[in-house]
Write a structure and sequence with these properties.
4 helices; 124 residues
């Protein structure tokens, strides 16, 4: 099995176990439903940050692609951490809007940088 696939399956299994554990804790009265939502959805932000951290480490054939992977990695790590922090500490409505905005901004920064690299390459 590929190392990347193994890591992805581990993350998926971890999120499922976390969700089941949080649901079990809610059924026994240890935590409320909002906390279960915050735990499970906030973990997605950590997953985004983890994948962002992996981006620059992947092999890419050209210098431009390596630059794009570095910028994309940084933007996704930061947006994932912001997403997770909002789900941990902000009111839920703000966490939804702010978290989505953070992830969209990370994607937009990555796409914008890729388009600027492409324009520079065409101009040269």
């Amino acid at each position: 099995m590929n190392k990347e696939l193994g890591s992805a399956i581990t993350w998926a299994g971890g999120i499922i176990v976390l969700a089941l554990g949080a649901t079990f804790a809610r059924q026994w009265g240890y935590i409320d439903a909002d906390t279960v939502t915050r735990i499970v959805v906030g973990t997605n932000g950590l997953l985004i940050a983890w994948y962002g951290n992996r981006m620059p480490k992947a092999f890419v054939p050209s210098a431009g692609a390596r630059k794009a992977a570095r910028v994309g990695g940084w933007s996704m790590v930061l947006s994932g951490l912001i997403y997770a922090a909002l789900w941990a500490f902000a009111p839920i409505q703000i966490a939804v809007i702010g978290g989505c905005a953070a992830v969209i901004a990370g994607i937009a920064i990555t796409a914008g940088y890729c388009l600027s690299l492409r324009a520079k390459a065409k101009a040269a």
